[in-house]
Write a structure and sequence with these properties.
The complex is a heterodimer.
Chain A (H helix, E strand, L loop, with lengths): L1 H10 L18 H23 L4 H8 L2 H32 L4 H15 L3 H9 L7 E4 L3 E4 H4 L2 H27 L2 H9 L4 H31 L11 H12 L2 H30 L27
Antiparallel strand pairs in A: 1-2
Helix pairs in contact in A: 3-12, 4-5, 4-8, 4-10, 4-11, 5-8, 6-8, 8-10, 9-10, 10-12, 11-12
Chain B lengths: L2 E12 L2 E12 L3 E5 L6 H8 L7 E6 L2 E2 L2 E4 L2 E4 L2 H8 L2 E4 L11 H11 L5 H14 L15 H13 L5 E5 L7 H16 L4 E4 L3 H7 L2 E6 L2 E6 L1 H6 L4 H11 L1
Parallel strand pairs in B: 3-10, 3-11, 8-9, 9-10
Antiparallel strand pairs in B: 1-2, 1-4, 4-5, 6-7, 11-12
Helix pairs in contact in B: 3-4, 3-5, 4-5, 5-6
Classes of the chains: A mainly alpha, B alpha/beta.
Chain lengths: 308, 254
C-alpha cells in the first residue's frame, strides 16, 4: 500500500498536474449505510412487534386522558416540584456547611450525606411513611402538637423522602460547584470589603448556580421519574392511579403505557426547559451550549460523557 | 511627607517554609513604591500580608491610623471580627495578576458592586461614579460587556477602576501586567502612570523594571523573604551594593 502510494507520487510530474477546478470525488462510507440500515430494520421489527402484540391500543388512547390519570399526573408534578425545591434548599444549606470553617458543621453535613445517600430512596420513603411508629406525636412547644399520622400524610412522606434524599446528592454537587468557582473571585470580594455572607450570596453562589445548572436539570428529570416510587406508600400519584385501574379492569400493560406516555411528555418538556435555561444563564460565559435549537440535540454527537 | 503604611516585622510561613523573614517598610502618602525580586522571593505574599489576604504569622501592618486586623489596647493586639477587618481591607485597593473580575457581572456591575454593597451607595450614584472611573481608564464604551468578552489589558483596566471605586487610601498592585500579552502591557502601565502622577499612594509588585525606573519614588528589591535593597530607582537599579541584588538585576536587565 505504502509502496504503491509513493509510486503514484513519484510518477506524477508537475507537468501532468490538474487545473484549479479539478473534480474531487469524496470517499464513500458504505459501512455507515449498512449499519444504519440494520438499526432501522431492528427498529421496524420492534415497532411491528408492539403493533401486532396483545395490546389494545384503543384502551391506551381512552385512558390517556382519563380524569384519574390526569389528576394522578398533577400529583406527580406537585410531588416532584416540592421534593426538588426541598432537595435544592437542603443541598445548598448542607453544601455550604460542608465547606464551613467549623469542623462540627462540616461533620454534620458529611453525616447527612452519608446516611441519606447511603440508603435506598425506596427504603427512606417507607421509613418516612411509617415514622409515626417511632414518634406517635409531633410536639414542638408553641408550634405543633398533633398525631404524627395526621402530619405525615402520604404526600408529606413522599416529599420528605424524595427531597431529603435528593438533597444529599445535591450537597455534594453544590460543594463541588462552590469549589469550582475561582478562588480569586472570593479574594476580590474580600479586598472590596464584602463580608463572608455577602461574598457567598452575591459572588460565589450565583456562579455556583450557573455551574451546577445542568445537574439540577438532570435532578428535575430524575425527580419526575422517582416520584413514581410514591405509589408504594399509597400516594395517589399517576402510577398509583394506573395500578388501581388495572387491578379492576386487568389492562395492565395498557395503563403502564399510558403512564409511560405522560412521563415521556414531562421529561421532554423539562429537557427543553433545561436547554433554554442553560442557554440563558450561559449568555456571558463561554460554556454556553451550541446555538442550535434543543430539538437538534438528538443529532449532536456527545462531547463528553454526562455526569449522572 | 506623612506615613501612609508602616509594616513592622512581617513574618509569614507556609508549613515549615518561611516565606517572609521579618520585613519592615514605611510608605509615605503619595509615594509610588515598586517591589522587585526574583520569583519565589515573597513579594506577592508580602503585598497580600499588607491587606491581610494572608494573615501574617508575626508583625503587623499599620495603615493610616489603624493596625490591620487588630485592635490595639492595653499593650495587646486583639484580633478583629471579620466584618471590621473587611471594613479595613476596603481602604486598600487591590489589583490582581489574574484580574479576578466577577465573571457573572458586567463591567459596570463589577465597578458598582463594592460601592453599593459595602459603602451603601444608591445605584444611580454608584453608576455615575463608576462611569467616571471607566472613562478615566478608557473603558466607558465597554460598560455593558462581560469580562469574558474583554482582552487581558481591558480586564485589568476595569479591575483598576473597580479598586478605585472604593476610594482607597492606598492602591496595591500584584504583578498587574504579568498575565498580559506583551502588546497589552502598555495600556495598563499608562493607566498606572496617570494614577501615580495624580498623587495616588501605590505599592506595586512588578517585573517591569522600566516602569519602576520611570515612575517609582523608591524601589525595593526582595530576595528570599528579605528586603535586600531599598532606595531611589536610580541608585538601586544602577549600582546596588548587595551582590545578590546585583546578580538578580543583571539577569533581568540583560
Amino acid at each position: 500500500m505504502q509502496q504503491s502510494f509513493s509510486k503514484t507520487l513519484a510518477t506524477l510530474s508537475p507537468a501532468d498536474l490538474p487545473g484549479r477546478d479539478v473534480t474531487v470525488r469524496r470517499l464513500r462510507h458504505p459501512g455507515r449505510w449498512i449499519s444504519g440500515g440494520i438499526v432501522l430494520l431492528l427498529l421496524a421489527v420492534i415497532v411491528r412487534a408492539f403493533a401486532v402484540g396483545q395490546i389494545q391500543w384503543t384502551v391506551v388512547g381512552r385512558f390517556l386522558t382519563a380524569e384519574v390519570i390526569i389528576v394522578g399526573f398533577g400529583w406527580t408534578l406537585l410531588i416532584s416540584a416540592c421534593a426538588l425545591a426541598l432537595g435544592v434548599a437542603l443541598g445548598f444549606a448542607f453544601g455550604i456547611m460542608r465547606l464551613s470553617e467549623n469542623p462540627i458543621l462540616r461533620f454534620a453535613a458529611w453525616l447527612y450525606v452519608w446516611v441519606f445517600r447511603g440508603t435506598p430512596v425506596l427504603l427512606q420513603l417507607l421509613i418516612w411513611f411509617n415514622i409515626a411508629l417511632v414518634f406517635p406525636r409531633l410536639y414542638i412547644p408553641g408550634l405543633v402538637d398533633a398525631r404524627m399520622v395526621d402530619v405525615v400524610t402520604p404526600f408529606v412522606a413522599a416529599v420528605l423522602g424524595l427531597g431529603v434524599n435528593e438533597g444529599s446528592y445535591l450537597t455534594e454537587v453544590v460543594r463541588g460547584g462552590i469549589g469550582a468557582v475561582d478562588r480569586g473571585q472570593k479574594e476580590a470580594a474580600h479586598t472590596l470589603g464584602m463580608t463572608p455572607g455577602q461574598t457567598m450570596r452575591r459572588i460565589i453562589l450565583p456562579q455556583t448556580l450557573r455551574l451546577i445548572l445542568p445537574v439540577l436539570g438532570n435532578s428535575a428529570i430524575g425527580m419526575l421519574k422517582f416520584s413514581s416510587l410514591a405509589a408504594t406508600i399509597a400516594m395517589g400519584e399517576m402510577l398509583n392511579a394506573a395500578q388501581r385501574i388495572y387491578f379492576i379492569n386487568g389492562a395492565v400493560i395498557e395503563l403502564l403505557f399510558v403512564c409511560a406516555v405522560w412521563y415521556l411528555l414531562g421529561t421532554t418538556v423539562l429537557s427543553i426547559g433545561q436547554y433554554y435555561l442553560e442557554r440563558h444563564f450561559g449568555r456571558d460565559a463561554s460554556a454556553a451550549p451550541a446555538g442550535r435549537g434543543w430539538f437538534a440535540g438528538w443529532s449532536r454527537r456527545p462531547a463528553a460523557p454526562e455526569e449522572a | 511627607m506623612s506615613l501612609a503604611v508602616k509594616a513592622v516585622g512581617i513574618r509569614k510561613s507556609f508549613g515549615s517554609h518561611e516565606v517572609l523573614k521579618g520585613l519592615d517598610l514605611d510608605v509615605s502618602h503619595g509615594e509610588v513604591l515598586c517591589i522587585l525580586g526574583p520569583s519565589g522571593s515573597g513579594k506577592s505574599t508580602f503585598l497580600r500580608c499588607i491587606n491581610h489576604l494572608e494573615t501574617p504569622n508575626g508583625g503587623y501592618v499599620w495603615v493610616d491610623g489603624a493596625i490591620m486586623g487588630y485592635d490595639y489596647a492595653r499593650g495587646t493586639l486583639q484580633e478583629l471580627p471579620v466584618k471590621r477587618l473587611r471594613a479595613q481591607q476596603s481602604q486598600l485597593g487591590m489589583v490582581f495578576q489574574h484580574f479576578n473580575l466577577f465573571a457573572h457581572r458586567t463591567v459596570l456591575g463589577n465597578v458598582i458592586e463594592g460601592p453599593m454593597v459595602v459603602r451603601g451607595l444608591k445605584r444611580s450614584e454608584a453608576e455615575a461614579r463608576a462611569m467616571d472611573l471607566l472613562e478615566q481608564v478608557g473603558m466607558a464604551g465597554k460598560a455593558q460587556s462581560y469580562p469574558s468578552q474583554l482582552s487581558g489589558g481591558q480586564k485589568q483596566r476595569v479591575a483598576i477602576a473597580r479598586a478605585l471605586a472604593m476610594q482607597p487610601r492606598v492602591m496595591l498592585f500584584d504583578e498587574p501586567t504579568s498575565a498580559l500579552d506583551p502588546e497589552l502591557v502598555g495600556e495598563v502601565l499608562e493607566v498606572m502612570r496617570t494614577l501615580a502622577r495624580g498623587g495616588t499612594t501605590m505599592i506595586v509588585v512588578t517585573h517591569e523594571i522600566g516602569f519602576a525606573r520611570e515612575v517609582a519614588d523608591r524601589v525595593v528589591v526582595m530576595i528570599d523573604g528579605e528586603i535586600r535593597e531599598i532606595g531611589a530607582p536610580g541608585d538601586v537599579l544602577s549600582n546596588p551594593s548587595d551582590p545578590r541584588v546585583r546578580s538578580f538585576l543583571s539577569r533581568v536587565l540583560a
